């Protein structure tokens, strides 16, 4: 009776079924100790294949019938993590909140930081910050805080995400991970390093990078009431990363010309910056050099930045 056989197998399938789970690592930054949790293999009973095998063996007077199982293997395994455990700090970067930051903005930063703490990237993995953040909804815990929208500061759900983007961007640049996508803010705010900020808004702007180190990389994040920090852990490379001081160019009627930040503040004029990032090996040999270009409409710490409406407090 095939229907009874399938009913029996369905009940067995519920007991057999399990979801795959990647191996994970817990890093105790204070002591340098760590614990690696082994992966779980996913299992699913294949009822059709089991019934077919049953029918084939039944005429042979067999009394043992194997259940056909489909296995799903996780990408991250204990062996991969133990071969090159991501427990050596490659970089660290911290930004501080502004004088006028609201509790809502700090709440959003803490929320996202909690989601990013412990993210593990295997060799070749790409990471999209916009995808990791997801939709800005009240149900997911977001509150309204200022974002730059259509040339003005507007309270919207998720305000503060750009500080996540800027801090993480500088941490991965110092760790020399490959940046695939980055865009600066339209306004510059001096809580960020000039010429090295990164704006993020799901569906519109993103920070995307790839783990091109050849070994696992672990992201650690912590947000307090004063600051946001990211640390990148991996396998020692001996590389050294340095940024040049930003070169500033102000927009005039005849085009851009070299200027100082003081001139930019006085003129209320659009400006751009150029920062050079150099990477050297342990012996001081230059491995790569890149230019980071940024363009800004205004210096956002001035009172001329348009505010659409007050931010909730």
Structure description:
The protein is an alpha+beta fold and 313 residues long. The protein is 23% helix and 34% strand. The chain has seven helices and 20 strands. Strands 15, 16, 17, 18 and 19 form a five-stranded antiparallel beta sheet that branches. A four-stranded antiparallel beta sheet has the order 5-14-13-6. A three-stranded antiparallel beta sheet has the order 7-12-10. Strand 18 (271-280) and strand 19 (286-296) form a beta hairpin. The mean pLDDT is 91.
Identify the notable features of this structure and list them briefly:
34% strand; alpha+beta; elongated; 7 helices; 313 residues; 4-stranded antiparallel β-sheet; 20 strands
Task: Walk me through the topology.
Layout: H1 2-16, E1 24-28, E2 33-37, E3 42-45, H2 47-57, E4 69-72, H3 78-83, E5 88-96, H4 103-116, E6 119-121, E7 126-128, H5 129-133, E8 144-149, E9 152-157, H6 161-174, E10 178-181, E11 187-188, E12 208-210, E13 217-223, E14 227-234, E15 240-243, E16 247-252, E17 255-259, H7 261-267, E18 271-280, E19 286-296, E20 298-299
Parallel strand pairs: 11-20
Antiparallel strand pairs: 1-2, 3-4, 5-14, 6-13, 7-12, 8-9, 10-12, 13-14, 15-18, 16-17, 16-18, 18-19
